[in-house]
């Protein structure tokens, strides 16, 4: 999603949610100015697989500590 309130400042950042391995690839962004000048940007998105987080309860001095590893 492009944040329209930031476009006026020249910020055309693209936010991608719930990225999947299949989203990896080359993306192109084309836009034109008021004078019909074409601006192009190309980027390559690399997506790596991560493991599901593993939660472990570890005894601590006054209780337990919740340890998260991913």
TrEMBL record:
It comes from the Eukaryota. InterPro entries: Ig-like_dom_sf, Ig-like_fold. This is Uncharacterized protein. The gene is Nfu_g_1_009628.
């Amino acid at each position: 999603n492009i944040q329209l309130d930031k476009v006026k400042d020249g910020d055309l950042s693209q936010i991608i949610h719930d990225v999947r391995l299949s989203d990896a690839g080359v993306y192109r962004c084309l836009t034109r100015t008021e004078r019909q000048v074409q601006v192009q940007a190309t980027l390559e998105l690399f997506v790596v697989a991560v493991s599901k987080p593993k939660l472990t309860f570890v005894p601590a001095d006054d209780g337990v500590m919740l340890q998260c590893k991913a």
